[in-house]
Amino acid sequence: MMTPEKEKEKEKEQDQVVVDAGMKRYRNGEIWEFEDDLGVSDGDNGVLLGLDGGTTSTVCICMPMIPFSHSQLHSLPTLARAVAGCSNHNSVGVCVVFQCPYWVGNYGEDKRHQLEIAARETIEQVMADALSKCGSKRSSVRAVCLAVSGVNHPTDQQRILNWLRDIFPSHVRLYVLNDAVAALSSGTIGKLHGCVLISGTGSIAYGFTEDGKEARAAGAGPVLGDWGSAYGIAAKALTAVVRAYDGRGPSTMLASSILQKLGLSSAEEIIGWTYADPSWARIAALVPVVVICAEAGDEVANNILLESVQELASSVKAVVNRLGLSDGKSGFPLVMVGGVLTAHRGSWDIGKEVINCITKQFPGVIPIRPKVEPAVGAAWLAWNFFMKECHHKAEN
Amino acid sequence: MMTPEKEKEKEKEQDQVVVDAGMKRYRNGEIWEFEDDLGVSDGDNGVLLGLDGGTTSTVCICMPMIPFSHSQLHSLPTLARAVAGCSNHNSVGVCVVFQCPYWVGNYGEDKRHQLEIAARETIEQVMADALSKCGSKRSSVRAVCLAVSGVNHPTDQQRILNWLRDIFPSHVRLYVLNDAVAALSSGTIGKLHGCVLISGTGSIAYGFTEDGKEARAAGAGPVLGDWGSAYGIAAKALTAVVRAYDGRGPSTMLASSILQKLGLSSAEEIIGWTYADPSWARIAALVPVVVICAEAGDEVANNILLESVQELASSVKAVVNRLGLSDGKSGFPLVMVGGVLTAHRGSWDIGKEVINCITKQFPGVIPIRPKVEPAVGAAWLAWNFFMKECHHKAEN
User: Where does the signal sequence lie (chains A, B) (predicted)?
Assistant: First the structure.
């Protein structure tokens, strides 16, 4: 038998369910608790969320939904920025969120499932943090653009959309893309035209024509020959040390430099170190050592970097050729993103060499090093997609 | 207070412990239960055990300990043969027994621990099976030679020796080696001289001089450039399909052949297939497809095989040079083992090409394709090591 008190409680719970419809509360609502302290929506135009979920960190940008013209998009202010995860190879990689394990590491199924749950929570938390920072709640959100590494198929997109749908009210427009698309947008101020080249732990080239055709190259992970990535460069360097040690390859400064960096005493120990942890970012972190050795004149290190330049340039050329982005002279934007292409201190600049290599075949290439991060690119895309939908509705 | 009955039971248990000293019984003694049905030792010379623990199966050979001359070693009869595991990539890989994870797959720590326990049980069971088959018990064993992949350091050896020590009575001589050494012995009838080249899922070259110096090359696993292995060949083939698909590489027959073999409908699906399971043997199993394409005239497949030949030959050359095994013309045995070198049906014979390549630099090379399996080589080594110890004792 239910007492009148219990019945009242149950009714209250049911009311709560109705209020929360389409606003699923995870972790007993802890993540979204801040919303209870905010007043009703202030009747403004609302906000946009742009997210960039890479393998090592997730950034969320909150921008106002001001309906001004596209050419002014770059002056849209950032209301709040939140970050989860850090450049630590032990952190949760976001690309496993939806069972896309590559570039995080080759983990077993149980571990992957744990990572997936943790990554979903990370994304939800970072969105809540951004909204909380600017005093907005989910009901004020107009559009969310979530760019995640490892999203390749419409089925990947749909799975993520279904999950996002449960978090936001039904009026919120949701967009899910490969993180390369947000990186392109960060360089083209929200316009999907041209090619982006990313080389971080992994590498990928992704391009769009003005009429919406798209193509990608590389980005297939470490087993499938991603030699232009930081992982690829570092794996080749470790291999060179083993080969020098066992007599198959020339001696190289990489041996002493890498052993010192890893605190190992012999090249034999590199084998154990390599397989002790399945994280790819941990191996990728050795790239600065390779660059230092190449700058000091080590031929083996130099050749590894030259090969990575060829690999990266060939990815871009493949995309440009497939899309017909340029007849050679005609211009197209090439957005360059990721530590391998942008971080350089000495004489060896991988990004510059890649541009030189592409320029030979496509003199019209317009290299762009974005001034904003990919999460801003994602927010710009959210603005663009939302405005297009509005115009489309107004026209019909 | 202990009742007289309980005290008696306890005494009985203690007696049992004394009887079993140095004869640890796993799984409540289930594995070694057959010994209870055997009579006392028949006073003969006893038996030897030779084990070959690879990544996909473990073989145990039981031979009689007949003290005849070394030259007659090849006529030592096999009393029993037992096998555990099978050429199934889901089976337990033995090389994880002692935390040497490479060549099984990049599993997480929990899974690796499970595999280790399972692999130890596998090895113990296969020894019990071999002894049981020929009606011998552990007290009749004179020597055990366990050859395991992934044993590289004296610390690896010691850990395995400690574990074996608990299974056998204290008089049993125990030897633990890298599986490459047993493979060499299988071709040289127990003599540790010359070089062995193994190419299965992984690849390694291992050599000995007559005065006991040793050297190895390659065998550093898939991350560290083991391109001469079945895994290396197959990973390059998968990469070639992805590159052909995204426009970075030439089109190749490998695409349709591999997609058909894997039951996939598009090259894009290869990425998901590759990372769905961290087992390396699963990828390595694609080598026959590469050979068929090369034989059908596909240039990409042909180049992949030519590169693997160069890799394998360079491993052998590195070992021969480091050990000074040959001045060029002087002869040395080269034992060839593993599916990549021995399995061929059509016109492409990787093993033959490797020999051709080595012969150019070392015309004195004497290629040997062993007629017996590596486990027999391990048993021959057990005989040799045991006899040497006996002679050494007799001399002192």
Answer: none
pLDDT of residue A89: 31
Contact of B319 with chain A, judged by CB distance below 8 Å, is answered with yes
Residues B236 and B175 in one domain: no
Whether pLDDT at A90 is above 90 = no
Torsion of CA B317, B322, B325, B330, to 10 degrees: 60
- Tell whether B236 is within 8 A of chain A (Cβ): yes
Kindly report the CA angle at B228 between B226 and B229, in degrees rounded to 5?
Answer: 75
Counted domains in chain B: 2
The answer to whether residue B102 neighbours chain A at the CB level (below 8 Å) is yes
Same domain, B327 and B344: yes
Question: What value of ipTM does the predicted structure carry?
Answer: 0.84
Mean pLDDT of the residues in chain B: 84
Q: Burial of B16 by CB count in 10 Å (0-12 exposed, 13-18 middle, 19+ buried)? A: exposed
Distance from C-alpha of A63 to C-alpha of B336, rounded to nearest angstrom: 66
Q: Would you state the pLDDT for residue A86?
A: 39
Which 3 state secondary structure label does DSSP give B41?
coil
Domain that holds residue B327: 222-368
Query: A218 and B271: CB-CB below 8 Å?
Result: no
Do B115 and B278 contact (CB within 8 A), yes or no? no
Q: Are residues B239 and B378 in the same domain?
A: no
Q: Note whether B231 and B300 are same-domain residues.
A: yes
> Per the structure block, which two tokens stand in for B119?
């692999």
Instruction: Tell me which of A102, A106, A204 to substitute to probe the interface with B (most B C-beta atoms closer than 10 Å).
Output: A106
DSSP SS3 for B99: coil
> Is the model more confident about B279 or about A90?
B279
pTM of the shown model? 0.84
Selected residue of A206, A248, A315 to mutate for chain B interface (largest B Cβ count, 10 A)? A248
Dist. CA A389–CA A174, nearest whole Å: 12
Residue A229: CATH number of its domain:
3.30.420.40
Q: Please return the burial class of B39, using the count of CB atoms within 10 Å of its CB with bins 0-12, 13-18 and 19+.
A: exposed
Give A17 or B23, the one with higher predicted confidence.
B23
pLDDT band at B99 (very low <50, low <70, confident <90, very high): very low
In a domain, A238, yes or no: yes
Residue B264 falls within a domain, yes or no? yes
Same domain? B307 vs B386: no
Long-range residue pairs from B37-43, CB within 8 A, at least 24 positions apart, any chain: B38/B135, B38/B136, B38/B137, B41/B137, B41/B139, B41/B140
Indicate whether B287 and B143 sit together in one domain. no
**A315 to A354, A358, A378: CA distances (angstroms):** 10, 10, 23
Residues forming a β-bridge with A176: A146
Of the candidates A153, A236, A247, the beta carbon closest to that of B217 is on A247
Please check whether residues B364 and B377 belong to one and the same domain. Answer: no
**B89 part of a folded domain:** yes
Inform me whether the pLDDT recorded for B19 exceeds 50: no
Question: Is residue B275 included in any domain, yes or no?
Answer: yes
Q: What's the confidence (pLDDT) of residue A220? A: 86
**Contact state of B247 with A110 under an 8 Å Cβ cutoff:** no
Query: Alpha-carbon distance A98 to A148, whole Å?
Result: 10
Q: CA-to-CA distance for A343 and A66, rounded, in angstroms?
A: 34
Q: Is the CB of residue B90 less than 8 Å away from at least one CB of chain A?
A: no
Q: Give the H/E segment covering residue A12.
A: helix A4-19
Nearest to B242 among A220, A222, A246 (CB): A220
> Of A271 and B5, which is predicted with more confidence?
A271
Average pLDDT over residues A226-239: 96
CB contact under 8 A, A106 and B110: no
CB-CB under 8 Å, A101 with B106: no
B45 shares a domain with B180: yes
pLDDT at residue B270 greater than cutoff 60: yes
